[in-house]
Amino acid sequence: MNSITADKTSPAVTLVLAGHDPSGGAGIQADIETIRSLGGYAATVITATTTQNTHNVQGIHPVNANDLITQARMILDDLPIAAIKIGLLGSIDNIEAIHTLLRDYPQLPVIFDPILRAGGGKSLTTQEMVAAVSDLLLPHTTLLTPNTQELKQLSPNADSVAAQAHHLISQGCQHVAVTGTHADTQDVVNKLFGSHGEMQSKNWPRLAGEYHGSGCTFASACAALIAQGADICNAVEMAQNFTWKSLEQAHKLSDGQHLPNRFFWSEQS
């Protein structure tokens, strides 16, 4: 990494590897908005373009893995990266390329949002890609941020949220923050797990409607805060607060899902 370090007034830099959503609700635009809103700086490498809107995803078009790895290494050699955030992967080739990258930068915290299914329901991965994620990326992951559906897909043989999280931690992931937006509960219950079990549980009032990019917002908020020096527990709690307020004041620009308002604080008097 470049020997030049940021001064105390420079924003903490997060390297984001994620897909592009043309609606702006999710993907790399969600990551950029969140990280900048929280005072950080996002350097971005697009893993895939997508054909989607606020209703659902129609198609995923992965970038060339060699281009991905070359772009990422140039940024890592140039900027004082303090964390890496991973979103949509796009292909097994991209998973393998990112694995190589993470292996070469073991000192950097990695926040991984395992985007396996679109908010509209379309699957965004294959069983082979899930297996590659487990084998190649989880051992390098500092914080994994699945919703309950993604957690089950990654741990199909475990029979509870705690057991599913423990399974992922046994595969090398350090922490798992499970979001309860898809669970059938009155409140949204988010839980953080570590190697010694449950570390944190937070309840949030369930908001009406559907939201496009809530998982991206939460994961990139965690990344921005960890890059700025927050510990895992504080980062996860503050990221939940930021995400809930972004959803509470979301924009309804179509008859599809609501779009998070990640600069809600700028509109408050």
Tell me what you see in this structure:
The structure is a single chain. This protein has 8 helices and 9 strands. The termini are far apart. It is of the alpha/beta class and 269 residues long. It has helices at residues 27-37, 65-78, 92-104, 127-137, 148-154, 161-170, 214-227, 232-248; strands spanning 13-20, 41-52, 57-62, 81-86, 110-112, 143-144, 175-178, 187-194, 197-205.
Give the CATH level 1 class: Alpha Beta
Rg estimate, integer Å: 17 Å
Number of helices: 8
How much of the sequence lies in strands comes to 15-25%
For the record, give the distance between the C-alpha atoms at the N and C termini, rounded to a whole number. Answer: 42 Å
Look up the CATH topology.
Answer: UDP-N-acetylmuramoyl-L-alanine:D-glutamate ligase
Give the CA-based shape: globular
Question: What string gives the helices and strands in order?
Answer: EHEEHEHEHEHHEEEHH
* CATH architecture call: 3-Layer(aba) Sandwich
Q: Report the structural category.
A: alpha/beta
